[in-house]
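hey
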């Protein structure tokens, strides 16, 4: 099948996207990744030699062309460039990464190529933003959303949430792929590191690192040698300061570390005893799942979508309702190495259902069924 994957910006620093398109190419699809970005196509992630890549508005060596393309990106929507490209390439199916990608391949276009819309975030977050747009844009999005052949959600529970916003033709749940870690390469929980980690961007509203500090402060006197490390992108300097001020308030600043981004995140998981994941919402919770695949027990909040499906309380970790209970469960795990080992082994086993091979098989089936449905 000729598969066109559309992501407007930062294509080549999105590890998930490159792994996804490479896996489709490996099972025989003719994959073409397309973006429209003057200077934000990204770097770092590698596309397979079997995958084509086109930037419709790429920077060139010609300064005059660059001025034109810079202005074009600033002042003209790219849907007409996509329209021309789609007419030329004639893909069998289009997969859109974000909602603005769906807009770019749908607005003012009449092609009959089926579109699969990926949902990387919790649906209410995505559609809640659309509902806040001006009236005329909401009407446009309603039309293009209802023309989507298939919506792909990450969890079964997301389907009912999506349906509350729009009448859609078909919803299929396919999770993110989680790398499977051989037993010998997982975290060795028999060796106590006295370390709790949280792998996520450092952000107050969505990721809520401050809740871990508040919970740890309640039990710090019992575990003075334990530390908490926050790993992930840092975009909000004020929140970093707020976190350390909070730690200072509770006299635990020597136990709290904001570590930043790591290019070798598996080593971070290996050097921990368990993880706490207090996100407000997640599309899937890949950072959580990766830690579980490494054999770490986890604590999350019971009302956090996706997190409350990956963590099975009392089995591979705990789900808690508030900071008080978070502190209680952290204390339980900090004081019981045998329990951590048992829960960690179960966590790794539970992640086997997200084996990349199984996820690729599901996508291969969805693509073929979507195209054949159009051809019938």
């Amino acid at each position: 099948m000729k598969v066109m994957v559309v992501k407007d910006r930062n294509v080549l620093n999105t590890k998930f996207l490159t792994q996804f398109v490479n896996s489709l190419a490996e099972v025989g699809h003719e994959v073409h990744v397309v973006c429209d970005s003057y200077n934000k196509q990204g770097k770092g992630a590698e596309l397979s030699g079997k995958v084509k890549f086109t930037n419709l508005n790429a920077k060139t060596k010609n300064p005059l062309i660059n001025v034109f393309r810079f202005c074009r990106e600033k002042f003209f929507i790219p849907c007409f460039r996509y329209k021309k490209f789609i007419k030329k390439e004639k893909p069998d199916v289009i997969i859109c990464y974000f909602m603005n990608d769906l807009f770019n391949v749908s607005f003012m276009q009449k092609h009959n190529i089926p579109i699969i819309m990926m949902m990387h975030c919790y649906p209410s977050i995505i559609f809640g933003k659309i509902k806040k747009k001006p009236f005329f844009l909401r009407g446009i999005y309603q039309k293009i959303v209802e023309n989507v052949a298939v919506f792909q959600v990450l969890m079964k529970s997301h389907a009912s949430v999506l349906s509350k916003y729009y009448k859609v033709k078909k919803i299929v749940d396919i999770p993110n792929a989680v790398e499977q870690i051989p037993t010998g390469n997982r975290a060795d929980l028999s060796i106590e590191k006295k370390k709790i980690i949280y792998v996520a961007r450092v952000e107050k509203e969505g990721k809520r690192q401050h809740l871990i500090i508040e919970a740890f402060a309640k039990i710090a006197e019992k575990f003075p040698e334990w530390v908490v490390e926050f790993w992930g992108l840092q975009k909000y300097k004020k929140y970093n300061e707020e976190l350390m001020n909070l730690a200072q308030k509770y006299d635990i600043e020597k136990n709290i570390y904001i570590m930043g981004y790591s290019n070798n995140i598996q080593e971070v998981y290996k050097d921990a005893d368990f993880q706490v994941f207090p996100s407000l919402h997640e599309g899937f919770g890949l950072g959580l799942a990766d830690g579980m695949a490494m054999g770490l027990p986890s604590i999350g909040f019971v009302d956090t979508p996706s997190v409350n499906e990956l963590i099975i309380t009392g089995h591979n970790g705990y789900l808690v309702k508030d900071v008080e209970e978070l502190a209680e469960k952290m204390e339980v795990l900090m004081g019981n190495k045998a329990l951590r080992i048992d829960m960690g082994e179960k966590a790794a086993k539970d992640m086997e259902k997200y084996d990349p091979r199984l996820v690729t098989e599901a996508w291969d089936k969805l693509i073929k069924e979507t195209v054949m449905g159009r051809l019938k």
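Residues 369 and 375 are 10 Å apart (CA to CA). The longest strand covers residues 30-35.
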